[in-house]
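Entry for the shared binder. Reason: the reviewer on the internal report wants the predicted structure included alongside the sequence.
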Amino acid sequence: MIEPEGWDKLAGLNGLSLEAVDVGGVRLGVGGKVRLCPPSTGTDIMDRALAGKSGVIESIEQSYEGEVYLAVVLDDDPGRELGFLRQPGHRFFFRPSEVEPQTPAHDTAGEAS
């Protein structure tokens, strides 16, 4: 089998997952709860549709260019278990600046009005 030039250099780069990332002064890792808050301008329709939804960080990935992304599985996704199996359409990628930590101090989901 002939492999593309440079393939051997990329073979060891599969470990681009991170353990944790700081978001708004809160250290978040896999399993951390977040609320999605992409910017209101310069986004696509999916960002707008998912804005305000809450979810769980399934993984923290770093691109070859050094950008960090959070793979989030939505709490209200009926196929949620597929997200944890890394199936297409059930994990959504956001930058740390596009999420809000849902620690007990930040979580307002259960408050009575």
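Summary line for the report: The first strand starts at residue 20 and ends at 23.
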